[in-house]
Design brief:
CATH topology of the largest domain: Rossmann fold
CATH architecture of the largest domain: 3-Layer(aba) Sandwich
Oligomer: single chain
Radius of gyration: 21 Å
Number of helices: 16
Largest sheet: 5 strands, parallel
Distance between the termini: 45 Å
Number of strands: 10
CATH superfamily of the largest domain: HUPs
Order of helices and strands: EEEHHEHHEEHEHEHHEHHEHHHHHH
CATH class of the largest domain: Alpha Beta
Number of domains: 3
Strand content: 5-15%
Length: about 425
């Protein structure tokens, strides 16, 4: 699928495409899509001064999200892997053209699709505000509304840091993000972005594999606005996620094509860091919980009072929107969440649509994700952790395979303990 993503004044007719996407603007042509409609204005209102290549990275991310929504997996030859040819307008086309290979490799890891990227001039670079603001925060933390990112932001503050919280606005989580940023550390500086991607004939249900790339792009962009960045220092961008979900090992052989994101997988993070380094963007991407289970994160959280008060308000469910902004209680992320509460010894006040997974029917104990967890537990016990993980840690870019494997083993043990307690058979 050929897709061209550029500003509204771009000569789309000059680049043959299956779909044209207008970046950072409204679109009146029903045959075209749009992305980041109000995003430029939201960033400009902050009066910050991002790096030019951070703007370019954001444009690339918007293009990727547009492709992810427009591409239909069931129309691909194997029913899963899509092929995209993206043309994106950027400020520094020669640089990105020279580094297209590493970007394509990074995106392939993220979405399991095949990507070909081309770049043209005409990107966005707003003039700095006459009263430009250079935030004095120490670092940037992604605040999704999830439990892991909530713990991560708490821990950074408790360690004496002053993080700038950045969120991707999602229906059902927007108000939580604002509330969490407002209560942690007496209130964090907070930016909420919305990619507002709209494409004709979107995939239904929409793919979720690449959506997080724009969330990361917000974080990188805001990291380049900090005073310390403008002074020549490196800024750390924290992506806080437990090691089990970061690796997201397929519980069974049939679940390799998972719909969930791989944003914090160590291979993806290594490739992203290579892109940032090549671009001269002094942003260090770090997941401080790569070797922790979700239960361990809860136990070791540095402000237990705050965690106890609000942990149940966070979101973990992979089907949160489908169930009316409620946790289903049975998908893999919900299982990991429930297992973490149990491992931490905390009372779980979260409402789950499917509360008792021990009920012997297709909606509870017989549900696919629940059965897959049981199969995964049994197969790991029989074959050993490293063999069960398979290709999830096979890349030469992963240098701590044994530690990650041990983290996955402990994470699976938390789920097994949950299943045992609920008498799921």
């Amino acid at each position: 699928m050929k897709i061209t993503c550029a500003l509204s004044d771009f000569d789309f007719a000059g680049v043959p495409s299956d779909l044209n996407i207008v970046l950072y603007g409204h679109n009146s042509d029903p045959t075209r899509g749009s992305a980041g409609t109000a995003l430029k204005q939201a960033i400009v209102r902050e009066k910050v001064v991002p790096a030019a290549r951070a703007w370019d990275l954001l444009s690339i991310a918007l293009a990727v999200v547009s492709a992810d929504l427009a591409g239909h997996r069931d129309r691909s030859p194997d029913g899963w892997t899509r092929e995209f040819e993206l043309t994106v307008s950027v400020v520094d086309a020669p640089f990105w053209s020279a580094n297209a290979g590493i970007l394509q490799q990074m995106l392939a890891v993220l979405s399991t699709d095949r990507w070909t990227l081309q770049f043209v001039e005409g990107g966005i670079l707003p003039q700095p505000d006459k009263q430009a603001v250079h935030p004095t925060e120490d670092c940037v933390v992604l605040l999704s509304g999830g439990l892991d990112s909530y713990i991560g932001a708490i821990d950074l503050v408790e360690k004496g840091l002053k993080p700038f919280a950045v969120s991707q606005m999602v229906r059902g989580d927007g108000e939580k993000q604002i509330a969490f940023a407002g209560e942690i550390g007496g209130g964090l500086r907070h930016f909420q972005g919305n990619h507002n991607t709209d494409v004709p004939d979107p995939e239904n249900p929409p793919s979720q594999r690449a959506r997080s790339i724009v969330f990361l792009a917000y974080g990188v962009l805001m990291a380049t606005t900090l005073s310390r960045y403008h002074a020549g220092d490196e800024v750390t961008l924290y992506l806080c996620e437990n090691g089990f979900i970061a690796i997201n090992p397929p519980l069974t052989g049939g679940r390799i094509g998972s719909l969930s994101t791989r944003t914090t997988h160590p291979v993806f993070l290594v490739l992203l860091q290579q892109v940032l380094t090549a671009a001269g963007l002094r942003v260090k991407v770090e997941n401080p919980y790569q070797l922790k289970t979700k239960g361990e994160m809860m136990v070791e959280c540095l402000n237990q009072m705050l965690l106890d008060a609000h942990a149940h308000q966070t979101t973990s469910c992979g089907r949160f929107l489908k169930f009316g902004y409620k946790h289903c209680g049975r998908c893999v992320p919900c299982q990991v969440r429930r297992a973490a509460f149990k491992a931490s010894g905390k009372v779980d006040q979260t409402f789950y649509v499917y509360e008792d997974l021990g009920i012997d029917d297709e909606e509870h104990a017989g549900f696919d994700d629940v059965r897959s967890a049981l199969i995964g537990i049994a197969e790991r016990r029989e074959t050993g952790t490293r063999r069960w993980i398979g290709s999830s840690l096979s890349s030469a870019l992963v240098d701590n395979k044994d530690q990650l494997a041990q983290t996955i083993e402990r994470g699976l043990a938390e789920i097994e303990s949950l299943m045992t307690a609920m008498r799921v058979q």
